[in-house]
Amino acid sequence: MSQNWTPPPPAGGSATVPNNLVISIVAAVVSFMFCCLPHGLISVIFATQVNKKASAGDIAGAQQAAKNAKMWAIISIIVSVLWLVISLVFGILGGIMQSIQNR
After folding, report:
1. Do 83 and 35 touch, CB atoms closer than 8 A?
2. Domain spans, the chain
3. What is the largest CA-CA distance in the chain?
4. What is the pTM of this model?
């Protein structure tokens, strides 16, 4: 009669902290391509703090830095897309107004 027993995880084990570095770098590239907003750079700065804080043992600080990096990446993408849409709308309206004036 054998039982399948797995030992519990060690008490002092390191917790995994999600690092949103990839999405923040994508956000930085997208924001710099569209309108050079600093939001992507802020996201990258927070994302680089995640591994430093996690390796120093500050798991709560690392989780907060990862959350901030993700938030600033989303803000950067949203602002960049809104800026693109507004620019396109005004460009199209300007073209329409120019064609009306040339008649």
Report:
1. yes
2. 21-101
3. 95
4. 0.65
